[in-house]
Amino acid sequence: STILTQSEFVDKDSLSYPFEERGLQFGDGIYEVIRIYKGEYYLLTEHVDRLYRSAEAIKIKIPYNKEKMTDLLHQLMKKNNMENDGKVYMQITRGSAPRDHIFPQEVTPNIYAYLQDLPRNEKILENGVKTISQRDVRWENCYIKSLNLLPNVLAKQTAKENNCYEAILHRDGVVTECSSSNIYLVKDGKVYTHPATNNILHGCVRMAVERFLKEENIPLIEEAFHIEDIQHADEMFLSSSTSEVLPVIQLDNVVIGNGEPGEITRTLQKAYEQDAK
Ligand code: PDD
C-alpha cells in the first residue's frame, strides 16, 4: 500500500528511519487517529486542528499549513483506492538527530500517515463492554496527543488481562477519561463528563457528542464525577474514533444501571451513525 511521508507518497515497505529518531528515543512527537467510513474521513477538520495544536504545544513546526495537510490526506485516500471502513494513523516527530535531550539545531520533522481497514465492531456496539478502574498516573498535559503512551498501554493491558475492554482512569477518585477514549456518566437524564482541561484529551468524537446532545436537548454537564458516583449511574458510555459511542455496562464489580445499554446511549449511537454517513 501507499503511505504519505513528509509530502511524498511512497510504497509502505520502502520507508525506514535511522535508529536515532526522536520519536523512538524520546517519544518526542505527536499523532492522530482519524476514522474512515466508506473511504471518507470522519471529523477531519477537528483532527487536523488538534494535530496542529499538539504540534504547537511541543514546539514542532509542521512544514505546511492545514489546507495542504488536508489535501495530502485526501490524496492518500485516493492513491490507495480506499473504499472501506478504516482509519488513518498519522505521526509527526521532531526528527532524526544524534541523541540529545535538547532540541537539535538543524532538524526537520518526520511525518508519515498510512491507512488501515477497520470494520465497525457491531457486536460490542450492540451489547456494551465491561471496564476496570485504574489510577491515572499520566502527566499534566494529557490534552496533547503525544507519543508517550506507556501509562495508557499498561492500563489497557491490565484491562485486557481482566477481560475488560477499557480502563477508566481516576486521579484521587476523580474520573478523567479512559486509556484511549473519553468517558461519560448518565444520571437523571443528564450527561456528565470531565471538563476539557489539560487532564484529558479533547476527543473529536467528544465534540460530536456535545453537538448531538445539544440537538437532542439533553443537558451536558462538564463536571468531573467521582468513581464512587458510578454505582448510582443510570447509564455509562465511552467515545473515541475507533470505538464510536460505546455502551459501558460494568465497572469492576459494579453493574451500571440494569446492566444493559441505556436509552440516551442508544440515542447518541443513532445520532453518530447519521452524522458519520
Ligand atoms: N485514542 N482519550 C485518549 C487518551 C485517547 O487516546 C483518545 C483517542 C480519546 C478519544 O479521542 P477521539 O475522539 O478524538 O478519537 C480520548 C485514539 C483512537 C488512539 O490512540 O488510538
TrEMBL record:
EC number: 2.6.1.21
Protein origin, superkingdom: Bacteria
CDD domains: D-AAT_like
Gene3D superfamilies: 3.30.470.10, D-amino Acid Aminotransferase, subunit A, domain 2 (3.20.10.10)
Catalytic activity: D-alanine + 2-oxoglutarate = D-glutamate + pyruvate
Cofactor: pyridoxal 5'-phosphate
SUPFAM superfamilies, A to Z: D-aminoacid aminotransferase-like PLP-dependent enzymes
GO molecular function, one term: transaminase activity
Keyword tags: Aminotransferase, Pyridoxal phosphate, Transferase
First-level EC class: transferase
Subunit structure: Homodimer.
Family: Belongs to the class-IV pyridoxal-phosphate-dependent aminotransferase family.
Protein name: D-alanine aminotransferase
Annotated gene: dat
